[in-house]
Amino acid sequence: MNPVEKLFQRTTQGVKPGLDVITALLEAQGNPHQKLAVIHVAGTNGKGSVCAMLESVLRASGFKTGLYTSPHLIDFSERFRINGEPIPEEKLNGCITLMEEKADEMEQATGVRGATFFEVSTAIAYQYFADEAVDIAIIETGMGGRWDATNVVIPLVSVITHIDIDHTNFLGDTIEAIAAEKAGIIKLGRPAVSSPQSEAVLAELRKPGVRIIGSTEAVSVVKIGDPQKLKIETHSRNLPAVNLPLLGECQRENCAVAVAALEVLADMLDFEPAFKKGLESVAWGARFQTLQTDPLIILDGAHNPSAGRALAKTLRELYPKHQVGFILGFLEDKEAVEFLRAIKPLAAKAWTIPIDVPRGTTAEHVAIQCGVAGIEAVPSDVSGAWKSSRDWATAEPNRLVVITGSLYLKQELERKSM
């Protein structure tokens, strides 16, 4: 068993919110997180895209960047990047072995519970970035914020992307409860930048002594050409036209959040952000990603109702005359029926597939959920759905296929060499 496989055994412990274990684990390593300048990002949707934009612009501006995100699409090493490159295998294995040993020693010596998979992973990220002396670390929360293992830092700036209903079994079943958890990354005396939010969410984000900067108040992002040519203006600059590789209205919103946060950083650190170079070179997989063009097949990791609505809006914007066939797969803890209702008006055809991870569901179960949402779907395996959907898409013009429901679908396609 290699170190990564050994670490993944900790996933059986599930999610255990709290900061005591991660704090003790980092203290045993000399508190590497305290050596880092951090941008901390939380939210329901768009976290990864915003992190990718922040990292790309900062790297283009001359900073040595660290980027910690989850989940990974193909390989675990993707979660830990420096200057856009995943951690080397040998270095990763060494970090895992060290942190596992520290976690086990701590558990035996103090009697605290065993560290979870995400706690060990987060400790690895902070240690790796400190060892390599990155200039800025962009840190994405795993879930929530207040008790998320990443929330042991005092960031330069906190970023809150769009908040909606998700992870209700851990974060609460109301938008207010979820917002309160995510607001936990906002720190006294440090600025915070937020996507447009409902008044209920904003009420939870506002704290005494904290400046909340609304992205739409600070930045204007307007589409001026296809597929995503943008005019971007801030209070202090009018940027040349930017061709953003990430498509859809939701990515324009994410772009505004990233630009607003970068303007805050530019004032704090006195640098000129390379906005155009960074935004035009950003890459972030499984976000309305074109897998092939003939027939057109798109992969999108949308996995909750809000993201489902955003996906439907993007499809209407970019392909208003196309029939859409969906290949669908979900994890068991997702609000699949509400997601499916969001895309139902576009679903000319649908296939369901299993996701082969511990929380994955069967194709038959997803087909039942589709039925509840009013979508007729055919249960299949990955290979069968791929072939059937391609045949359907090539049978008539103006048809496309969208694979969606989970970021883990990228792994399923990779396993089948698709």
Describe this structure in words.
It is built from 16 helices and 17 strands. With about 425 residues, it is of the alpha/beta class. It folds into 2 domains: about 5-280, Mur-like, catalytic domain (UDP-N-acetylmuramoyl-L-alanine:D-glutamate ligase), CATH 3.40.1190; about 290-415, Mur ligase, C-terminal domain (Protein-Tyrosine Phosphatase, Chain A). The strands form 3 sheets. The chain has an 8-stranded mixed β-sheet with strand order 4-3-2-5-1-6-7-8, sandwiched between helices. The protein has a 6-stranded mixed β-sheet with strand order 12-13-17-14-15-16. It has a 3-stranded antiparallel β-sheet with strand order 9-10-11. Helix 7 runs parallel beside helix 8 (about 200-205) and helix 12 (about 305-320) packs parallel to helix 13 (about 335-345). The chain is globular and about 60 Å long. The two termini are about 25 Å apart. The relative contact order is 0.11. One of its GO terms (biological process) is folic acid biosynthetic process. Belongs to the folylpolyglutamate synthase family. One of its GO terms (cellular component) is cytoplasm. It holds the Pfam family Mur_ligase_M.
Short description:
The protein is α/β, with parallel strands linked by helices. The chain has helices at 3-8, 20-28, 47-60, 89-110, 117-131, 168-171, 175-182, 199-205, 215-218, 249-269, 275-280, 305-318, 336-343, 363-373, 382-395, 409-415, and strands spanning 38-42, 65-68, 80-82, 85-86, 136-140, 157-160, 192-194, 212-214, 219-225, 229-234, 242-243, 289-293, 296-300, 323-328, 347-352, 378-379, 399-404. Helix content is 41%, strand content 18%.
